[in-house]
Amino acid sequence: MNYKHTPNERQAIISLHRNGQSVAHISLETGVPRSTIYNWLKEESRNQDTPNELSLKNFRMLERKVEHLEGIIEILKTAGCLPSDSLDTKLKALECSPWHIL
Question: Under CATH, which number does the domain 7-48 receive?
Answer without folding.
Answer: 1.10.10
